[in-house]
Amino acid sequence: MYLADETWPNLGTYFEEESLAIVPLGSTEQHGPHLPEGTDHMIAEALAREAAERTGYLCTPTINVGVSPHHRQFHGTMWVDAPVFRDYVESFSRNLSYHGIDRIVYVNAHGGNVEHLQEVGRRLHETETAYAIEWMWDESIPDLVDDLFERNGPHGGPKETAMIMHIANELVHDDRLEDARDGGLTEWDEMGVHGAKTFYDAADNTENGVLGDQTDATPKKGEELFEAASDQLVKLCDWLDDQPFEDLMPEPHVRERE
Ligand SMILES: [Zn+2]
């Protein structure tokens, strides 16, 4: 069920019976010369809507702009500051709890959002408002991602390229896949100096903004990733729905030992 398509009486029926919401979040930021800037939010929305369709749970509209200042040197990248993003997602989630939602899955497809969503989840947990968890699609299927691609990359690489080929193939510039590979960084291994991370921006490491070997992506592999990640998401939603609310809430303060 997609919230924006429903009427309020229908939603009232949902809130009477269910208390789970799926919230897609991504970014609008450069994804190299070959992929659209909406890559992350398109992936998040497609997975969230697929899971909502399969399970009947509620999917909210997508939060399309996230925490992406580290891509700002590339044309068109959009972002909001991290504290604003946290407050916005927290307020958005408290709004859901007003209607009766007490468990939320943040379907995330942008690495820059992760720590902030975890912080929002912590705040909602602390106030016993809701149990909200962050879920990142590629982290739910690490073995498959490793098996499918030899030279992956955390950004604009073959896994995201394959996903967009599956979701919106018309937006992929497949005549630029070799350029994407040759102008970026194919071997990614967290760089740093004596244990310190010495860069802030994507532009510090990659000329064209992307990492990995994009020529390894195909729509078929994208479909495989999409199906496997959707299965994981459906299972996560069912698990979360099954938990008694008290079990999801914080432990009481420890007692003094006698
Ligand atoms: Zn991305």
UniProtKB/TrEMBL annotation:
A Pfam family it matches: Creatininase
Transmembrane spans: none
Alphabetic keyword roster: Hydrolase, Metal-binding, Zinc
GO molecular function, one term: hydrolase activity, acting on carbon-nitrogen (but not peptide) bonds, in linear amides
Biological process according to GO: riboflavin biosynthetic process
Organism classification: Archaea, Methanobacteriati, Methanobacteriota, Stenosarchaea group, Halobacteria
Protein name: Creatinine amidohydrolase
Keyword S-adenosyl-L-methionine: no
InterPro entries referenced in this protein's UniProt entry, alphabetically: Creatininase-like_sf (IPR024087), Creatininase/forma_Hydrolase (IPR003785)
Cofactor(s), names only, from the UniProt record: Zn(2+)
